[in-house]
Design a protein that fits this description.
Distance between the termini: 8 Å
CATH superfamily: Mannitol-specific EII, Chain A
GO cellular component, one term: cytoplasm
Strand content: 15-25%
Pfam family, one: PTS_EIIA_2
CATH architecture: 3-Layer(aba) Sandwich
Protein name: Ascorbate-specific PTS system EIIA component
Number of domains: 1
Subcellular location: Cytoplasm
Number of helices: 6
Oligomer: single chain
Largest sheet: 5 strands, mixed
Organism: Holdemania filiformis
């Protein structure tokens, strides 16, 4: 499942970041490099988090950076994955808003986007999946988690 929605060239493993804006930029970097998104899309995600708070935290340790569907600066539907060793702090007063797993979403195709989100949610809801992703050090570890939790 994971390999079906996140291309291997869109995986990143990092030590950590001094602030959450740098983490979002890094998480989006593979999509920027491929021309799937533009900097305006990354800027929109950052501005939305500043305005609405860390809405991108979908579970403890898991962030899903995204902006509006078909938003400015998006050219394709895709997801990138980034894992950090050190937690990225979004709210220093609320450790439940820390993240180490980032799934950056870009979407132009609503049907494919919803299908990707459902598949990702189903994967993350499997008992132990998040914990195994947090232990991943490289793409091989991700594929082991994929195989372990795929139906």
């Amino acid at each position: 499942m994971l390999k079906d929605i996140v291309d291997s060239k869109h995986y990143i493993f990092c030590e950590g970041f001094s602030d959450w804006t740098e983490a979002i930029k890094a998480a989006a970097a593979p999509l920027l490099a491929e021309g799937i998104i533009e900097n305006t899309y990354v800027d929109a995600i950052i501005e939305n988090v500043k305005e609405y708070g860390p809405y991108i935290i979908i579970a403890p340790e898991v962030a899903m950076p995204h902006s509006t569907l078909g938003g400015s600066g998006v050219h394709d539907t895709c997801i990138s994955f980034m894992k950090t060793e050190k937690p990225v702090v979004f709210d220093p007063n609320d450790p439940t808003k820390n993240a180490r797993l980032f799934f950056t979403l870009a979407a132009t195709d609503n049907e494919k986007h919803l299908s990707n989100m459902v598949a990702l949610a189903e994967f993350l809801l499997k008992e132990g999946a998040i914990e195994d992703l947090l232990k991943a050090k490289n793409a091989d570890d991700l594929m082991k988690a994929h195989c372990k939790y795929s139906e």
